[in-house]
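Narrative of accomplishments. A recurring question from our advisory board has been how the design workflow behaves on a single, concrete structure rather than in aggregate. To address it, we present the structure tokens for one chain from the evaluation set, followed by the sequence designed for it. No filtering or post-editing was applied between the two.
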């Protein structure tokens, strides 16, 4: 598991990610109000989650999807 945080004028942006048992990837993101984000996980099209808490994951192993 890995994680990072960044303080913005709007609040804290945080991201945690880990490999799943099947070799995929699960990411948990917190995006404060007033911020935009783009998430690009291996093998998945980019998504633009809005403010709030989000759980994103791949269904295929990350190593094969890259």
């Amino acid at each position: 598991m890995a994680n990072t945080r960044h303080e913005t004028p709007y609040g804290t942006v945080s991201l945690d990610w880990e490999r799943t048992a099947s070799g995929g990837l699960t990411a948990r993101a917190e995006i404060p109000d007033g911020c935009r984000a783009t998430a690009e996980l291996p093998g998945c099209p980019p998504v633009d989650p809005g403010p709030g808490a989000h759980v994103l994951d791949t269904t295929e192993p990350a190593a094969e999807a890259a």
